[in-house]
Request: fold
Amino acid sequence: QVQLVESGGGLVQAGGSLRLSCAASRNILLASMGWYRQGPGKERELVAVITRYLSTNYADSVKGRFTISRDNAKNTVNLQMNSLQLEDTAVYYCKLDAPYGRFWGQGTLVTVSS
Reply:
């Protein structure tokens, strides 16, 4: 079992920035780490993913604004979110995908106001 704890969510004005962090309870070296989000009335969607080889992939809607990074020594993955838009409002979830299993965090709420 792996626990993932997200932090960094909150209320921000449009155009502002937030940095989300996800801390894993075990080593993430072999894992792909991702951020997903679920907005009001919407399905959960991929935001960004970073593989064990440090390749990244982003949703078209966040390209150029969000940056995913990982620190294997600290077992953390971060999501830097800039130029936030109203439509970025959602609960953001961290996901770990590894040979030993697939795990989700509880989520952190990001609210973007006008």
Summary: The chain has a mean pLDDT of 97.
